[in-house]
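PROTEIN–LIGAND DATA SHEET

This sheet pairs a single protein chain with one bound small molecule, magnesium ion, given as SMILES. Inputs appear in the order they were entered. The predicted three-dimensional arrangement of chain and ligand is reported afterwards as a token string under its own label.
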Amino acid sequence: MNLPEVAVFDLGKVLVDFDYSIAARRIAARSTTPPGDVQRFIDHSPLLVRYETGLMTREQFFREIRQTTGFLGEIEEFAAFFADIFSPMPEMIELHAALRRAGVPTFIFSNTNDLAIAHIRRDFPFFANFDDYVLSYEHGAMKPHATLYEVVERVTGRKGTQILYLDDRVENAEAGVARGWHVIQHHDPKASIARVKELGLLPKN
Ligand SMILES: [Mg+2]
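PREDICTION REPORTED AS:
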């Protein structure tokens, strides 16, 4: 078996957990719309997809949210609510640190937006320690679209079995498998760490 040379990490539910209901409650408290409706409007909505595909700016995204929810504040207040939904996943952040110590190049590969990334850069020091970042909104495509996987292969300078990719979502994982990458569909840190060791990126003990 050909073993991987680099590790490519999804961000949400792999390195940081997130909960849009936190943002929805805080935005709703400053708007004319109930939290459930606010959450439906931002979480996995066509609007968020457009934003995370880079088809709209944060200002345009904010204006649409404000129009629909009746949000009373300005963009700075909205941005603070919208992005403050993340919590660290310590075992996986430590796995990443161990890979760095072992000299393994590491990369972020995420469907995301500039508000979330600005927040994560500020609040999560581990985020600075990757070789490079493939972020959906900078490339006009989202996982599982092949375009974004091609960007990963270009940025890492690797392909096929040279890449190990960790992602929690089945459709994203399958798109990696289809390109011949090693893929861990992440659910349980212990299982993922054991698999990384099996693949030779970290010592077994
Ligand atoms: Mg994820």
